[in-house]
Amino acid sequence: MISNIILVVAVIVFCVSAFQLFYIISGYYEGRKEYDEVKDLAITEEESEDGENQFAVDFDTLMGINPDTVGWIRFDPEPAQINYPLVQTADNSTYLNKTFSASDNTVGAIFVNTYNNPDFNDRNTIIYGHRMNDSSMFHDLAKYEEQSFWEANPYFYIYTPDGREITYHIYAAGQVTETSDTYLTDFADDAAYQAFLDYTKEASAYDTGVEVTTQDTVVTLSTCTRASDEHRMVVVGVKESEKQIN
What we know:
By secondary structure, this protein is an alpha+beta fold. The protein has four helices and ten strands; from the N terminus they run H-E-E-H-E-E-E-E-H-E-E-H-E-E.
């Protein structure tokens, strides 16, 4: 009798675990599939006559799928996996468990802090994304803990609905706590903003040597870490250039 009970319990535990694993894997698959389909619909990449790669975003298509669209983020050459639409809504919780097309899924979406302006002209704009175990979303930000990876991949790019391509030069990367000054978005004056910039450099895992002044604007990319629920991996880039591409 005891052996049979143990066997039944073991079978139940196995079935529950198998279902949970299937649910997780299925969620990853559906998430990847959706974002691949979004890229196919909205992104074109062509080589120009001078050999440069031309990256273009069809924001009309994106807006048709989700009117919360405020941009697109891309890394080139690596981590190339980070290549996603950006959304923003009235809170910072909606897109934790909803994809770009508003499907319920733990992969969520890459979203801009609700307290920022959607034009990326604030002194510090924060962008959030999950660190998924299948290396999707903002998982690969963790690679910037190694200075050698930053040296090979010091830039990321944001594209906006009004036709801008903004180039950001990463000047700081490392782990912080979720309550750190990295997440400040309002600054009383230049001195307060300078203190923020100094803090982000001090919190970096290494010195990039990239200059940042109070005349600059920055974007902070944030995701979870394996360290603890209170820690975050952040990559902070300063706007280096901006051009109109369409």
